[in-house]
Task: structure prediction
Amino acid sequence: MNEVVKNYYLGLDIGTNSVGWAVTDDEYNLCKFKKKDMWGIRLFENGETAAERRLQRTARRRTDRRKQRIDLLQMLFAEEMAKVDDTFFIRLNESRLHAEDKSVDFKYPLFVSDEYNDVDYHKEYPTIFHLRKELIDNPEPHDIRLVYLALHHIIKNRGHFLIDGDMKAARDFDATFLQILEEMTSDAFPFDIEVTPDGIQTAREILNSKKPNSSRAKELASVFLYATQDLDKDEKKKRKDSITHICKLFAGNKGDVAKIFYNTDFGGMEKTSFSFGEEIFSETILPEMEAVCPDEARIIESMKMLYDWGKLSEILGEEEYISKAKVKQYEKHKRDLRTLRTLILKYCDKKTYNEFFNNPNAKNAYSNYIGEVKKNGKKYAAEKLTKEKEYDAFFKNIKKILEAMSCSEDDQSAVSAILEDIENGKFLPLQRSKENASIPKQVHEAELNAILNNAESYLPFLKEKDAEGISVREKICSVLSQFESSVISYGSQARQGGRIHDD
Result:
């Protein structure tokens, strides 16, 4: 005779790395099976996101696209370059290899003649931006290798594709701000928001000011208008916090998208707080947002345009071309370094000077800032700063050294100027920094065209057209902006037209 099955309850406790279970009767007494209590737990490893694999895949694709662009550029220059230097591309492409692995045996990768070699090149052009500036300012004929190196750098580091239009559009604050507002008025944003024309002008002045990021963020919050009447205390606070975190992102500080979009579930994201200047935003945060909440991701991506405008304005200043602005930064870094060296040598002991400038193993020293130290005519690698907090520690160390000095009245003004520049983020500007990621494609494109305008007069092959009526110059410009299968084919693969973001 079959047993009557009584009613029972099955309880589950599901966690991230465990599942607990128990079986009880109607009165919540633990049931038994074969004289054993029916309860238990199963443990397993935490589930992991695909973030690491995604980062590697993204980096690999970016590297592949960059290599394809360079290969295309070399293909366009190959015939004319061979007339001048038939091993130039071989030396350049093999420059990273050990001597025994190279197919050609030359001391220098760029220039190998007795009259002009790499030493002479680097003396004449301390940075690649010096070369780019020279090719823009001077229409006189230049070596085809110099022209190629400048174009190579532009094509390789072509900027982001977040802004539509030309150079004027990239630097137009009003248009950028209005575009962001349009995105923020979508249904994805939790409440209605407005900014008056005067408010837009105020926002521009605030973001252009040299005040600290936190101060600019607080002032910027006043330009956004939103309803607060007939709202409970909790909703008012949420709206205020939303605007606060938006302004933090605009000013360059960390903001939290969970605070901005307080009605959105971000359960699928490990981290919701970031700043636009951090790699984690483009590499992890934005892709995760696009997967979890695509509408909100689109708004955040548009917000970054205002941050990029601020950084671009900061980098360019009054200059039209990025190379001229970078050369100015180079000269300022040199002046700042000379002043700092003079002050420390004059008012500090020799040990402090050597520790800060000459010790490759020191912490929070100048050698860490640039990633190397020169000693007795040789260069030694030093552990380079990479994180925001490491840069903060470096400048705090400088402030500590300067504030401990007993300076004369004349030198005190120099110390005060350094401290002010540190506070405003203007001291010892670097050529390569995270701010470069804020430069749009249009800036590099304008410089590319300026260089090609001059180069066409002494490199006639740039004007030569193929059977389809497309010139070499047009193909180079196409490589910068997109891969058009109708313009260039690479190997057996045709590059389809379309927008490629941020590489």
